[in-house]
Write a structure and sequence with these properties.
830 residues, alpha/beta, Rossmann fold, 8-stranded mixed beta sheet, 5-stranded mixed beta sheet
Length: 830
């Protein structure tokens, strides 16, 4: 669409009123026509000026709005507005020439001079394209003429120092591409292609797009910039572009810049590699009906960002009135009929030209067909933005007229001040500080219904353009994609790294191309495409998939859920019961010779201490606590010390029994129960003192060992003072060693029951078990360390019990004839 200037008749000198004047419309053949140059597929690549009905719709919208304003007695009373319309044809030179022509007036162009004889230049509408609008705005800013664009989106125009008189009824590319980049991120498209025009608009938009994509972690797989090139160069460009798109794994393509015949050429040539691609583009491309008409199959499934519709009156009846039969002098309308319906016009030379170019015969038409019947005309495009542009300028002019009255002719170039201060229906400024009209956006999904029509359906909308917040809402279930089963397309350089793994960048410039590796031990990632894995807490450990931390397993020797603990509990109970039965046997036969000969008090004490030693195993089972840690070592140390003290007393009494039988032996004074009881009490008291000192300085306590194993926590007892612990064990070992040495020395004494030999074997078993236990104890962790200690307790206690008492039980129960004093004496004599 071209540029439009509005003129009003000069003020009267007496009453300051406008005098009616007709709307000024330049002859279409004398000006740049409302054509958009497109290279039409199927015409051997020949560029042809193709008049597009939607642009004619914008022209009619401006006429409708100005007619409404001129008829409204409350708006600009006593003033009639007219207009000149020019088409820039998206060419900077034509745009600049048109601006200078309008400023100079009719006749020869004279920069900085105006040759107008009537009408006051008020302001300008347009242009639609950013490339031409920037140059127009630079010139108009010098003369302080107000300009309102309805399609230019370049953010360069936001600079109010350079373009103070420029306004637009659309938002800049900053908002558009920020939302588009968020849309790509929402669908997980991190690997995209870009098709852009190679001009100022395309360069600016691709730079802005790349900036936002980088912020969102999205990479550009390729960027094809379309240049206006000659045919031979263009063919090479087509080949390179086809190969680039074909090899790339990017399934999403973004359109940027300005749509032109050269971009249409490229899309037409590479369409066979684009059918499975999903296109994303902004409002300017979305409003281009040429795309919908000629590339509907390729663009189906696309997502577009479009401006939200502004309220406009129903103009259909006004549009319907534009028929060739009603407007025979409208040469633009005649061109549209000629090209779209092959209707012959009044200019024979033009008819021959189009018949030759399009290779078709023209025919006479009735001229009654309405322009609204064209499918491309039915698309509103930027109609509402054009309408709002006209009314915003006129309302500002009305406010200025009411405010400054007679000063209006001199202040007409300061109209931009009043446009800047226009208020919306809500009382806010209509145009923001940067001159933009900020509204919401619609997210549309293009769908090809059949070979001749394309349907657009709204699938989302923007909530805000604040870049610090989520800026859109989208209904994914309403989108129709090109893929099978209507799945969301995937456009990634690499497959997603599943939870439990992290991304490792590949060598190259693209951060979106990476490999996936499993998280290290003790680390997890609970989201896809995680760049770093997270360390679990000290009491947690990754699950098998490494996508979440689970509580570490507590490791201790349980007597309820652990087979090893159940075995130890069973053996401890059985051995305790056996010891109790032996004690009952000895108590029931305490008057027999064999029980009396072995000091029944020591035997009873030894059996009780062994039985309690078996029971103290239960302190080692179950989850350790401070009290159980305290009791397990103390009970074990004291009970074993009592047992070994009894064995030591027995050993000493065996020695004394034979030495005291000699006449006049001094050992007779030591032979008796008091001496043996004194040995037990003395030896046990020393161990009690060691334990008291240990508990006083640093008692055992429960601790959690989180460092020995990565996947479990060892609940164990810390011995507190290592010196105290090993002092207890060392003292027991000392007593056992003394007992073993003494028993070994008297093992050959002529005793029928050979008590010394049994004690020797029992102490040999005891010492062997505990000597073997120490390295095993130190080399294990957790419940197995406890199991080693329990095994040592059970085996050493069972060894003492078996070696000392089972032979006696055998004689008491099965060989009672040997359980007599006579048998004992006979054996000794022998």
């Amino acid at each position: 669409m071209g540029l439009v200037d509005i003129v009003g008749q000069r003020w009267g000198s007496d009453n300051q009123k406008f005098v009616d004047s007709p709307i000024i419309v330049e002859e279409i053949d004398k000006t740049l026509t409302l054509f958009a140059k497109h290279k039409i597929p199927g015409l051997d690549g020949m560029p042809i000026e193709w008049p597009i009905p939607p642009y004619y719709r914008y022209f009619l919208t401006i006429r409708f709005a100005i007619n409404e304003i001129n008829k409204d007695p409350t708006l600009l009373p006593n003033m009639t507005l007219g207009y000149h319309m020019y088409d820039s044809c998206n060419d900077n030179r034509k745009a600049v020439k048109s601006i200078l022509q309008i400023l100079s007036g009719p006749g020869q162009t004279a920069p900085n001079y105006s040759c107008r004889k009537s009408g006051k230049l008020i302001g300008f509408f347009g242009d639609q394209n950013s490339v031409t609008t920037v140059n127009m705005a630079q010139i108009l800013a010098l003369y302080r003429y107000t300009q309102v664009s309805y399609g230019a989106t370049t953010y360069v125009l936001n600079n109010r120092n350079i373009y103070p008189t420029f306004f637009r009824t659309v938002e800049s590319n900053r908002s558009i591409y920020f939302i588009l980049s968020g849309l790509l991120q929402y669908f997980g498209w991190t690997w995209v292609g870009v098709l852009s025009s190679d001009d100022d608009s395309g360069n600016e938009e691709t730079q802005l797009l790349t900036q936002y994509l980088t912020m969102k972690g999205i990479c550009v797989a390729y960027m094809i910039k379309i240049k206006p090139e000659i045919l031979s160069v263009t063919e090479n460009t087509f080949k390179n572009s086809i190969e680039t798109i074909r090899k790339s794994s990017a399934q999403v393509i973004i359109l940027c810049g300005t749509f032109s015949s050269y971009m249409a050429d490229l899309l037409n040539e590479v369409r066979h590699v684009l059918y499975d691609k999903t296109f994303i583009y902004g409002p300017i491309f979305a409003s281009n009906t040429f795309l919908m008409e000629h590339f509907r199959e390729m663009l189906t499934g696309s997502l577009t960002l479009e401006f939200y519709n502004l309220p406009v009156p129903d103009m259909k009846s006004f549009y319907d009135s534009f028929q060739v039969v009603n407007h025979p002098q409208d040469t633009l309308l005649e061109h549209i009929w000629l090209l779209h319906l092959h209707c012959s016009g009044t200019n024979e030379s033009r008819n021959r030209f189009y018949s030759t170019v399009y290779k078709t015969s023209l025919h006479n038409c009735s001229g009654t067909k309405r322009v609204t019947e064209f499918i491309s005309f039915q698309n509103p495009g930027l109609t509402d933005r054009v309408y709002r542009a006209v009314y915003s300028l006129v309302h500002a002019l009305h406010d200025m007229y009411l405010s400054i009255g007679s000063q209006a002719p001199e202040k007409i170039t300061q109209l931009y001040y009043w446009v800047k201060n226009l208020k919306s229906s809500k009382g806010d400024l209509l145009f923001k500080e940067n001159g933009e009209l900020v509204t919401s956006f619609r997210i549309m999904n293009w769908r090809s219904l059949n070979k001749s029509s394309v349907n657009q359906r709204q699938v989302g909308k923007t909530l805000t353009t604040n870049r610090s917040q989520k800026n859109f809402f989208i209904m994914v279930e309403n989108i129709i994609w090109k893929t099978e089963m209507n799945k969301i397309p995937k456009s990634q350089c690499s497959e997603n790294c599943l939870p439990g793994s992290r991304k490792v960048p590949r060598s190259g410039i693209h951060a979106c191309c990476y490999d996936c590796v499993q998280c290290s031990e003790g680390e997890i990632s609970n989201v896809s495409d995680s760049e770093n894995c997270q360390q679990c807490r000290y009491d947690e450990w990754p699950n098998e998939k490494k996508d979440r931390c689970v509580q570490k397993r507590l490791d201790f020797l349980s007597y309820s859920n652990d087979y090893l603990g159940l075995v130890f509990a069973l053996f401890s109970s059985v051995l305790c019961a056996i010891t109790g039965l032996i004690l009952l046997v000895f108590i029931s036969h305490q008057d027999t010779a064999i029980v009396k000969a072995n000091n029944n008090n020591l035997s009873f004490t030894l059996l009780v201490s062994i039985m309690l030693s078996f029971l103290c195993v239960f302190f080692f089972l179950g989850r350790p606590a401070d009290i159980s840690c305290l009791l397990r070592q103390i009970s074990f140390g004291i009970l074993f010390t009592i047992a070994i003290s009894c064995v030591l007393a027995k050993t000493i009494m065996v020695c004394l029994a034979f030495k005291a039988t000699k006449p006049g032996s001094p050992w007779q004074h030591w032979f008796g129960t008091k001496f043996s009881n004194g040995i037990v009490i003395l030896c046990s008291s020393i161990q009690v003192i060691i334990c008291v000192i240990w508990l006083s300085i640093s008692p055992p306590f429960q601790e959690l060992d989180t460092s020995s194993y990565q996947d479990k926590i060892i609940v164990q007892c810390n011995e507190g003072s290592v010196i105290g612990f090993y002092s207890v064990l060392g003292y027991m070992g000392f007593l056992a060693a003394v007992s073993f040495v003494l028993a070994f020395m008297v093992r050959t004494l002529p005793d029928i029951f050979n008590e010394a030999k049994y004690i020797t074997f029992s102490m040999l078993v005891f010492c062997s078990v505990w000597i073997a236990m120490i390295p095993a104890y130190l080399s294990t962790r957790g419940k197995y360390m406890v199991a080693v200690e329990i095994f040592a307790i059970l085996s050493s206690s069972a060894g003492v019990l078996g070696c000392i008492f089972l032979p006696k039980c055998y004689i008491i129960l099965w060989r009672p004839e040997l359980n007599t004093k006579t048998s004992i004496m006979e054996r000794r004599v022998l």
